[in-house]
Amino acid sequence: MLEAILSLTALGIVLGTILGIASRYLKVEGNPLVEEIEQMMPGTQCGQCGYPGCAPAAEGLVKGEAEVTLCPPGGKSLAAALAEKLGVEVDLSKMENKEKALAFVNEDLCIGCTRCFQVCPTDSLLGAPQQLHTVISDICTSCEDCIDVCPTSALSMVPVEKTMQAWHWPMPEKYNKEITL
Amino acid sequence: MTQIPPMSGPYMRKNKSVRRSMLIVMAALTPATAYGFYLFGWPSIILFSITLGSALIFEVICLLLAKRSVSMFALDGSAILTAWLLAISLPPWAPWWIAVVGSAIAIIIGKQVFGGLGQNVFNPAMVARVALLISFPLEMTTYMQPLPLFSDAAPTFMDSVAIVFGMGNFDAVSSASLLGTIKTDLGQGMALGEIMDGRYAPMDWILGNSISSIGEGSALLLIVGGIALIFGRIITWYIPVSTIVALVFIATIFNIIDPGKYPDAMVHVFSGATILAAFFIATDPVTSPMSPKGQIVFGIGLGLLVYIIRTWAAYPEGVSFAILLMNAMTPLIDRYVRPRIFGRTQKGAPLNLSEKS
Amino acid sequence: MEIFNIHGGAKLDGRKSLTADLDIITMPIPDILHIPLQQHIGAPAEAIVNHGDRILKGQLIATSKGLISAPVHSPTSGTVKRIGDFPAPHPSGLPVLTLTLEPDGLDEWAKLPEPLNIETATSQEIADRVSQSGIVGMGGATFPSAVKLNLGQRYKLEMLVINGAECEPYLTCDDRLMQERTEKTVMGIKVMMKALGVPKALVAIESNKPNAFKAMEKECIHDDNISIVHVPARYPMGSEKHLVQALTGKETPAKGMTADLGVVVHNVATAFAVYEAVYHGRPLISRIVTVSGQVIKKPGNYETLIGTPVSSLINMSGGMTDTPKQLLMGGPMMGQPLPNLDVPVIKGSGGVLALNDTEMKDKNVMPCIGCGSCVMVCPVGLLPLDMASRIEHEDVDGADGIGVRDCVSCGSCNYVCPSHIPLVQYFNYAKGRLKEQDIDRRNQDRMKMLAQNRALRDEKTQLALERKRADREAYNAALAKMQTISNTTKENNNTGHNTTNEMDIK
């Protein structure tokens, strides 16, 4: 009996000491997770998530304040990757409903003021002073920064049309697991 | 004709259903069960009915509690089949409460708690049998000599009711099963030749005239049922064949090494619940691996474990434990043993034509 | 000839007796035709006629665009009523650019190209003619056939396989084609052999079509290089890669083509279309469609003009006896549901089926019991139940890891599942999601790169601005300093004249 108590106590002390030393000398400075998450974000600093930029959003995610589905330009693939990184569960079906919309310049209203392409993070707005501006739809990230600065409201978000190429079968109905009697 | 959302194809199905599969398995069990009823008389029939009835009641209660569709699941045949298998692994003259407790454990703990049909990890009938065996060893190891149904020595219906419900007295000689006898006597130092003297009767075991439960009885009828299942494509041949082959293999090896201590393959295959397990219990689709290769691994493991537990562990019959252990291995087997995909190597890389001859 | 086994596969209820013994009937011209400009894999064709034009039968109405594309021709003479969006014969019901033609009943042919001289035509000329005639894979895949005929230039080819398997239940259009138009089909096969540059051809016919086999065999009796072969009637024998496996024993490597094995596969109806194009200059403007199902009054094989609305086809065939439980285009295993009856018949439509409840045997979906029937029948060696369970829990990447992209959506697993789980829909959903994810990821990377470039450019501009400002400040400071020195010198030199110094400083 006594031997058991003594031997286990000794073992506990030795192992505890080793852990204490390791935590002191092998400590990781800062939280590299935040940087890694920031790398994964689109980097457009659009602010649609509610945070002022991608770095604060990454911090919020690591702290657990933000949902992994916060980033519209990131879409489902980013949400899934973030969920895996942070080890959380995510219900991707919630993201289904956000309709994708792209910026569009109404050419009748555009005055060529150049304010919009100065704020576009991906240079998808093209133009020159006094010349008609236009959007290269392929690279528009729907961040909506340009909408705010246009003085004539020539810029608007137009929903993307669904095409046959983009269509796919929806998830099938599961057997009715829960029914109310 | 516009459907929103559209209904996906294919628009044709084979005439199969869960209920149909369960019914066919029950049909395959019927010859052996009926013969068992004949051998062991009314008490076994009453016990059987109590097991099935209580299982169905517990199933309905659980479905109501879990708010699942009673009409869809209660009569899909799975609860009744589980109860059937449990009933024929019990001693034929066991008291009624063994049947009720067994059904409760099988249905509630073995199946519904995990999420119902298709979600359980362990075979429910075996979970119940093991729980009963450990909790009520006396009742679960009290076997009788067969007393054929219409013979003079057999109890009448009223007598049987009394037996099952623990009232009155009926003179019957209880005895241990063959494997039980072997274990006890070997433990007392007797040599196998002595033990088996007068008891070595493979024909009896095959035909079913042995001291056992119904399910451990007629190996012949069970094999016929099992082969019918394979031809009916309800089960595949991989598990039954690999289990029996593995068992025969290891039994024969040890029998050659020391015939005085290790019973031969005939004993192992035809007495005890080997045939029942190999064809009907281990092949339970929910708890066995999904690919042919995985099923072979499962069967081999099962055969070896049955032998190991019977020979070196404390219990004379190792099948129920072996099944549970292999059920626990099934997810692992499924994860690592996969079929090869068309056009790819086993590891998953596309086939390299220059390497292929 | 040795036939090899394919892994898995299901033995289906053929249900071909409804139409197998009926001769092909040519359908009359319907009242209106809707001709989609995309009926093929690849880029949509571009219309070259306008609203109000009168066009003739066989006239080119849309040109192909790019390498993988096919032109479209007018099925009959008439007036172009509209060129615009119209629902496609696609489960989504989404629109496709379609030319609506009002026939004038005269069925007047346009001037067709001259027939080719087979003896002297080069393989490129044959491929060009096939391309100009708008011929695509008529087995349903609708891949532009000319591209497939040109494979002889890039790959070492040994054999042409003509796919006469027709493994889908109900469909008998290829069966009847081989029985009634045998000579022309074989001539088409020979043309294809020349285009590909292969020494031999195998015509694979499922064993449930003995008459077609006999007819083709009789026709090819003197041709040593064309052999007619029976293949087992096992679904999906008509799948290109599995047919090649059955005939040669070789597996096409994943992500590869049968051409990697030296084999090219074409559907038998495509061979007939090639005959028409090469010997008569006629483009692809009609096809044989099997109209079948218990709800169809007069099932049969109907030679239909491309663009015929499904409602017209069914009415002209005799109509329906009841409201069908399901209306679909193609076979019951891989066919697509029709969004409504106005959609047109297109180049790849082998069948139009109207099925009732009994034929579909649809029942409540139950949970998966892990029976493994799906694993036993999967011709690709996948684990459908494992993939479906992952997809159900939104783990689409997990399903990708165990091979969902290799799934050919044949539906064998769906057919045998005792729990009636819609397995194929799970896999089609997963494939769609994975494609979406791939596009998303590519966009993400591009977005990031663009944002970084922009940020870098902003930084550089900022830096340049600052340096400019710094330079200017330094210049101003230096200027100011020199002014002060000059003023001091001026004061010092009040007595004397030091104009030279002042001039220097300026």
Concise account of the structure shown:
The complex is a heterotrimer of chains A (181), B (357) and C (506). With 357 residues, chain B is mainly alpha-helical.
What does this structure look like?
The complex is a heterotrimer of chains A (181), B (357) and C (506). With 181 residues, chain A is mostly helical. A two-stranded antiparallel ribbon of chain A has the order 1-4. Chain A has a two-stranded antiparallel sheet with strand order 2-3. Among the domains of chain A are: 32-96, 3-methyladenine DNA Glycosylase II, Chain A, domain 3, CATH 1.10.15; 101-159, Alpha-Beta Plaits (2-Layer Sandwich), CATH 3.30.70.20. In chain A, helix 2 (32-40) crosses helix 3. The mean pLDDT of chain A is 81. Chain A has six helices and four strands. Chain B is mostly helical and 357 residues long. Chain B has a single domain (18-336), classed as Ammonium transporter fold, CATH 1.10.3430. In chain B, strands 1-2 form a two-stranded antiparallel ribbon. In chain B, helix 2 runs parallel beside helix 5, helix 13 (238-257) packs antiparallel against helix 15 and helix 16 runs antiparallel to helix 17. The radius of gyration of chain B is 22 Å and the shape is globular. Chain C is of the alpha/beta class. Among the domains of chain C are: 25-30 and 119-317, 3-Layer(aba) Sandwich (Rossmann fold), CATH 3.40.50.11540; 363-506, no CATH class. Chain C has helices at 123-132, 145-149, 173-180, 182-196, 210-219, 240-248, 268-280, 310-317, 357-360, 373-377, 384-392, 396-401, 412-416, 423-492, 499-505; strands spanning 25-26, 33-36, 46-47, 54-55, 60-63, 72-73, 78-87, 95-103, 159-164, 200-206, 226-231, 263-267, 286-292, 300-305, 326-329, 336-337, 351-355. In chain C, helix 4 (182-196) crosses helix 7 and helix 11 packs across helix 14 (423-492). Chain C is globular. Chains in contact: A-B, A-C, B-C. Chains B and C meet through helix 1 of B and strand 15, strand 16, helix 10, helix 13 and helix 14 of C.
